[in-house]
Design a protein that fits this description.
Helix content: 25-40%
Distance between the termini: 82 Å
Number of domains: 3
CATH architecture of the largest domain: 3-Layer(aba) Sandwich
Strand content: 15-25%
CATH class of the largest domain: Alpha Beta
Structural class: alpha/beta
Radius of gyration: 25 Å
Largest sheet: 10 strands, mixed
Number of helices: 12
CATH topology of the largest domain: Rossmann fold
């Protein structure tokens, strides 16, 4: 390790500028030591020129003196990986925060973000069951898909993601949290502890108030670990929350560097930065797969982060008033798998969706005092049950249980002739159909 004293020209909120050519390499890691307290901080080289070197602070204090000692670690940022990584919790740099010490027999892997070669990816063709009927039944998730959850601040998107992590049928789960409140982090831990998925879950956590450079690392540490698991033949679900926080960190760093800003101050390469992470999703021949779900908070879908995200991902899920909404949500790859799950899957979804469209119109009519005929009343009652049971993101059930619930709601409010489903499916799935025929 190269240990030298350099003249620090300036220390900002997240950046440190060093005068002159330090000989440090781009993306290399350095350790900064406060000579007065011996406190150590970790930083990464993000810009090098003949006149100045800029470091991005990842851990430690912002109160470094200008005579701090800088030690080159001689390598780019790495994270530890081993077979016993399941059930472990780390910070954004990959350091354990669960009190269990370092990983056993760990090897170091580079976390520089590298998108996988499209030529070696398989066409997505396997369902990933999440235990959420609004997804499994109506917008089926496919292994290797990338889909964001769009939600206004204050919506329970992290609770929904924790519910998915607790119920997903997958080999491994990786959660990357950026700017999480401590109680949100604890909620993930508690829900996973109550489920059977804790031992196959790994979490990389950046808590609000910690250095933003550490939060910027979270997607790359999470996805680099996921790549190793995929290479080991595992189907991996990666949950990233909140990608708007991550984009805001990116904007802050760019602004500190006096980069020319784009819309709302975000850097001009926001799209490529987001795409580089999301495009890690893949199903690889002879290996496993990576599926990515990312939370994106927004005030409007036209905000830069959701707007750019929508061009990258394969659909989107909307959380509104605590519900996973049927209308607006979309999985663009669901048709790759929902013909093979159960014979009634597509037909019952079509029937329920069409009736819900009519029910929405009946609901809107009721707001202006019309639509009091018996059929409109049935539609509104059906809508209420559908929202409470099938749009409820915390009403966990299997795919088949969700499909059966759809049939029960149809039979509760409508006659078979009103739902437009083929007779052969009615005979097999409509409750008591034969007795009524």
């Amino acid at each position: 390790m190269l240990k030298q004293k350099f003249e620090i020209d300036g220390i900002g909120r997240a950046l440190i500028n060093i005068v002159g050519n330090t000989g440090l390499g781009f993306n290399h890691m350095v350790k900064l030591t406060n000579p007065d307290t011996d406190e150590e901080s970790l930083a990464k080289v993000i810009r090098v020129s003949e006149d100045e070197t800029t470091l991005q602070l990842l851990t430690g204090t912002f109160d470094l003196p200008t005579n701090a000692t800088i030690t080159s670690l001689g390598e780019s940022m790495t994270v530890s990986y081993s077979g016993d990584i399941g059930g472990r919790f780390f910070d954004g740099t990959g350091q354990p925060i669960d009190g269990r010490g370092p990983l056993s027999f760990a090897k170091k892997i580079d976390i520089e973000s590298v998108t996988l070669n499209p030529a070696v990816r398989l066409i997505p063709n396997q369902m990933m069951e999440t235990g959420i009927p609004g997804i499994d039944v109506f917008n089926t998730l496919v292994k290797s898909q990338k889909v964001p959850f769009f939600a206004a601040p204050g919506e329970p998107y992290n609770k929904l993601l924790a519910n998915i992590a607790a119920n997903a049928k997958v080999d491994a789960i990786i959660i990357g949290g950026m700017g999480l409140k401590y109680d949100e982090y604890q909620y993930f831990r508690d829900e996973l502890s109550k489920s059977g998925n804790l031992d196959k879950t790994t979490m990389f956590v950046h808590i609000a108030g910690e250095p933003i450079g550490q939060g910027l690392l979270v997607p790359d540490t999470a996805l680099s670990t996921a790549k190793m698991m995929m290479n080991d033949g595992k189907d991996v679900l990666v949950i990233l929350t909140d990608m708007t926080n991550w984009a805001n960190f990116l904007r802050d760093i760019a602004n500190y560097q006096d980069n020319v800003p784009s819309l709302q101050g975000y850097p001009g390469d926001l799209y490529s930065q987001l795409a580089t992470r999301y495009e890690t999703a893949a199903d690889m021949e002879g290996a496993g797969s990576i599926t990515i779900l990312g939370a994106t908070t927004l005030e409007s879908v036209e905000d830069p982060v959701p707007d750019n995200t929508g061009y990258i991902t394969e659909g989107q899920f909307f959380i509104v008033d605590g519900k996973l909404k049927l209308f607006g949500s979309l999985s663009r790859l669901k048709q790759n798998v929902n013909a093979d799950t159960r014979p009634d899957h597509r037909k019952v979804v079509d029937a329920v969706s069409q009736l819900m469209q009519q029910a929405e119109k009946a609901h809107e009519a009721s707001l202006i005092g019309s639509g009091d005929d018996p059929f409109s009343i049935k539609l509104r009652q059906f809508r209420t049950d559908f929202i409470n049971q099938l749009e409820n993101p915390f009403n966990s059930m299997s795919l088949f249980e969700g499909l059966d619930l759809c049939w029960e709601l149809l039979a509760k409010y409508f006659d078979p002739i009103q739902v437009g489903v083929p007779t052969e499916l009615l005979k097999d799935y409509w409750p008591n159909y034969k007795a009524e025929a």
